[in-house]
């Protein structure tokens, strides 16, 4: 399917690994120019080179999204690279694992600044030009925990709930401008973070690392309807569609790509 992304430019935050990297590579393969964002230049440059070697167009923008000044630099670099940003994928975010009663107010506010404040910083700098051009896509990478919060990631889940709300309110504010705002909420995905968790669990149990064994136990414990843990490509495919002109009539939506993890009708 041709997603009609040739000539578009996408900024994908946190795109040096996992879901962000896979999304950037897919959008580039679909013809978009992509901005690879991260905090470490060597990692971002490596992904840029992989995309360029495959025939795509990519450029790196480095910065910490919890800082107003660094976000401004990221946007300046990204805008200059290919002449503007048509697609913003808010993927970057911290994921601490800590029981509710062991977290402090500072833990909550710091994470909110990182995961939610970063979206505000980026959108307020990027969306006005989208409105002026009468076309744009803003996509939040949420989580199934945004709809089904739990411990030991309560503060993280709360930030993801807030991001879903950000997309809904933004969709209404940008109504009629040609700019859409949506959320893609992944379920369990085999990212470096999940692999790290699996390794820690194996070590704690005195066992050798075996992701397939971890996956089997996870699916059994959660009764995950899909019967498997997802891949970054599962999320990238959804993001690519929402990024395209084919998704003009979808805005304010929360698309759960979670293998059926959340047992609700929406």
Task: Walk me through this protein's architecture.
The chain contains eight helices and seven strands, in the order βαβαβαβαβαβαααβ. The protein has 266 residues and is an alpha/beta fold. It has two domains: 9-189 and 231-254, Rossmann fold; 190-229, no CATH class. The longest helix is centred in the middle third of the chain and has 29 residues, at 105-133. The mean pLDDT is 96.
List keywords for this structure.
266 residues; Rossmann fold; 7-stranded parallel β-sheet; 7 strands; 47% helix
* CATH arch. level architecture of the largest domain: 3-Layer(aba) Sandwich
CATH class label of the largest domain: Alpha Beta
**SSE succession:** EHEHEHEHEHEHHHE
Mean pLDDT: 96
Total helices: the number is 8
Shape category: globular
Strand content: 5-15%
Terminal-residue CA separation: 27 Å
Major sheet details? 7 strands, parallel
Number of domains: 2
CATH superfamily of the largest domain: NAD(P)-binding Rossmann-like Domain
Question: What fold name goes in the CATH topology slot of the largest domain?
Answer: Rossmann fold
Low-confidence stretches: none
Computed over alpha carbons, the radius of gyration is 18 Å
Number of strands: 7
- Structural category is alpha/beta
- Helix content range: 40-55%
Strand sequence of the main sheet, in spatial order? 3-2-1-4-5-6-7
Task: Provide a compact summary of the structure.
The protein is of the alpha/beta class.
């Amino acid at each position: 399917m041709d997603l009609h992304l040739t000539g578009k430019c996408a900024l994908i935050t946190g795109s040096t690994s996992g879901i962000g990297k896979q999304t950037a590579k897919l959008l580039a393969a679909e013809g978009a120019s992509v901005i690879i964002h991260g905090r470490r230049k060597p990692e971002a440059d490596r992904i840029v080179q992989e995309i360029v070697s495959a025939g795509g167009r990519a450029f790196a923008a480095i910065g910490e999204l919890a800082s107003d000044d660094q976000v401004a630099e990221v946007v300046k670099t990204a805008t200059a690279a290919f002449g503007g940003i048509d697609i913003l994928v808010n993927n970057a975010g911290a994921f601490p694992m800590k029981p509710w009663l062991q977290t402090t107010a500072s833990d909550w506010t710091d994470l909110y600044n990182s995961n939610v404040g970063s979206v505000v910083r980026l959108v307020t700098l990027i969306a006005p030009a989208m409105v002026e051009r009468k076309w744009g896509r803003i996509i939040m990478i949420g989580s199934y925990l945004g709809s089904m919060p739990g411990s030991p990631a309560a503060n993280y889940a709360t930030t993801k709930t807030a991001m879903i709300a950000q997309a809904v309110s933004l969709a209404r504010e940008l109504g009629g401008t040609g700019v859409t705002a949506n959320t893609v909420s992944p379920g369990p995905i085999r990212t470096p973070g999940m692999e790290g968790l699996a390794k820690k669990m194996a070590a704690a149990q005195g066992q050798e690392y075996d992701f397939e064994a971890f996956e089997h136990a996870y699916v059994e414990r959660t009764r995950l309807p899909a019967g498997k843990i997802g891949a970054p490509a599962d999320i990238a495919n959804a993001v690519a569609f929402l990024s395209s002109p084919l998704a003009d009539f979808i805005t304010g939506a929360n698309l759960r790509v979670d293998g059926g993890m959340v047992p609700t009708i929406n």
